[in-house]
Each structure stands twice: as C-alpha cells, then as structure tokens.
Amino acid sequence: MPTTYNIYRNGEKVASQIESKTYTDTDLTPATTYTYTVSATNEHGESNQSNEVSVTTDEEYAPPEDPEELQATGQTDTTADLEWQ
Length: 85
Fold this sequence. Notes:
Blueprint: E1 4-9, E2 12-18, E3 33-42, E4 45-46, E5 53-56, E6 71-75, E7 80-83
Antiparallel strand pairs: 1-2, 1-3, 3-4, 3-5, 6-7
C-alpha cells in the first residue's frame, strides 16, 4: 500500500487517502481562520500529525454597483450609442 495523506481542518479530518502532496480545501467561509494539519498513512498505520498552519480566507467579494441612468446618446441606421453612470 503506498503512502497516502489525511487532511485535518480545525482538528477534524476533512479528507483522506490523498495521494498527492497538495490539497485544495473548498467551500470555506470568507474572512474565516482555519487551522490545518496533515498525517501520512500506509499499511502500518497513521503517522503523527504535521505542524499546524493557519489560513485566513479573503473577504467576500461583493458584486459591483448597478449601472444607473442608462441613456441612448445617438444612433445611426446600424448602431446604437449608450451611456450610463
């Protein structure tokens, strides 16, 4: 059995049998701090957990403000000119 890895977030196992030495944790909450550790496993058991690392996710991205005051500012037989604030 090859070595695989377990991922722990805030002390709870969130992934297991990871074969690579990279992992992307998804569906997290914006502006929240998480702590992670990793352990290795093989047919003989599980290692101790690694050192702990803390990650704080970015602030939530808000959509831009709505465009306002849309106006038609000109036209030709094949174009339309628009302007807004």
